[in-house]
Amino acid sequence: MNLLEYQAKRLLGRFAVATPIGQVAASETEAFEAARRLGCDRFAVKAQVPVLARGALNGIAFASTPDQVRSQARAMIGKPLGGDKRLPSHIVQQVLVEERIENVREMYAAVTLDRSAGKLVLLASHSGGEGIEERAAADKGLIRRLDLTLENNKVVADFAWLAGEIAETPPVASGLANLFRDLADAAVAYDATLIEINPLALTNDGRLIALDVKMTVDDNALYRRPELALLRQENDRIASTATELEAQRFQINYVPFEGDIGIVVNGAGLALATYDLVVDAGGRPANFMDVRTTATSLDIAHGLGLLLANPAVKSILVNVHGGGMQRCDTIAEGIGIAFRRQQRQVPLVICMAGNNAQFARTVLENSGIRYVDVGDMAEAAAEVVALSRRKAA
Amino acid sequence: MAVLVGPQTKVLCQGMTGRAATFHCGRMLSYGTEIVGGVVPGKGGSRHLDLPVFNKVRQAVEATGADATMVFVPPDNAAAAIIEAIEAEIALIVCVTERIPVLDMVRVRQALAGSKSRLIGPNSQGLLVPGVTQLGVMSTVDASPGRIGIASRSASLTSEIVLQTTRAGLGQSTTIGVGGDPVHGVDLKTCVELFLSDPATDGIIVVGEIGGTDEEEVAELIAGLKPAKPIVALVAGRHAPPERRMGHAGAFASSSGGGTALSKIASLEAAGAIIAPNAAGVGETMRQALAA
Question: What is the pTM assigned to this prediction?
């Protein structure tokens, strides 16, 4: 789960990482009130969406008075941000109103997971802010790296060494070493796979302040982080559609797209491969739907119900390989229930193999559903694309 | 012959008395896997599936001589179970558990470094030597003994490709699922190395997907070795919408970066792998490569 900036700053604040004073606001009036309470000379107004490079997308604005804060908030709230031709945008629901910290040196610090090394690593640089990636690509030594070792819940690493490499004076080095330790401890305490402070401001009087924070926490660890589990519910309410939330309840991984071909598979790899086959055949998938191994036939029926309820869906491809705990006949039962519940006739192509595939065909026959049975995945993809066009004509 | 396991491999099951473990141990026993006992804290001394149950992995190893273990422990205790098996110096650990917190896997990787153990998984369907032994939860109906080694990040795609290689008359020497988690044990590169030195394997199929650097590491390996055995690769997710990036650290932490299906395909192809046109054509691509 990606946290919003204000949530990440609140969590980091508990680890003695300084952030600008600020308040989150869900309306222009709240933003105005927040600015008045903060009583600063200069404000930053920042759209709360999990999007990279908000500055370039007009998601960050500056103001000198509460009235200006109000109009900046009005310009952001309710507007989409961060979409492009392949990614949907986020609607801005909240803004963070903060004291603007100026005349600083911009640095960079992050803890992240290096998945191939299987380690948490600390990354830091004396240079930060916008364009860091381009500068780092040009100058390989710009970003310094320190591998972290976990001993129970303690992080062991030579933070002072890294701080000394980056800082120009001993007091700054000492501040950085403390910040690095706090950052590493926070990553472990929150099961974070990313905490990135960029820019990390060094003020004229030597203070280190996290101006922006990006944080990703591990969804698989939410069971032992109840506070983050609550944030997850909050963020889902803001960001996910009702359909996505319903799918989660029924052990289905569901991601909607703009196309017209419904896809049901078991397994993420098979989902990716099936998506590729349908696009290769000239079709446009309406979704990813990956049935988890523990889903029951009723869960699967709910998942298919979501597809049938989408009027854009013109044909459906079910591509499953029974294995593990998930047998083909369980999925067949789910299909039967879903199609009996929904009166809508959507052409159905089924490609099945593995555990109980033959028995699953009997289950489908008995449920009286009409479907096209195709043994080869590529042919099944071609068939479902052809059916989606026939219906449209 | 096969890699990592054989008919003589003696297998433990950690978490044996659970529902999934009971079901799959039953299947594996009937497939011929030599399961010699289970480990379930607090249930030591009892019997399950007519096999002895122990409190500790070390006790089980001493009593049974087991050299492999399957971890069916739920995610909150799975990492501790794997580490216990590493400390008991079990040579092969297969973990099928899904949804283990990733920092727990970081701890497991630390424990693996310099140890005598190899870990397959987590979130893996396991390892299958058709007709000989099964350490995992995969379907076996379409598998047949043969000469193709399959190394895969996806359980469901492995199942499809097993079917295709059986239909192509090639069969499988060993199939290995490295698991779908970002931090895992044995990687695709290690599997390819094992298959290259396995006399029973004549061709290797590598099944990758978007994300991570497993495929790039395979490309690096074979670019240097120029192996005689054909290596057919499938990378799923060519048309998948990009994942939204958070921050820059991901790009800084991983040396090879990229990680899209197309960049992985390009590196594998440049290194000499044969790229399967799509998931449906993997078996046929390998048949042609071996016939050439």
Answer: 0.94
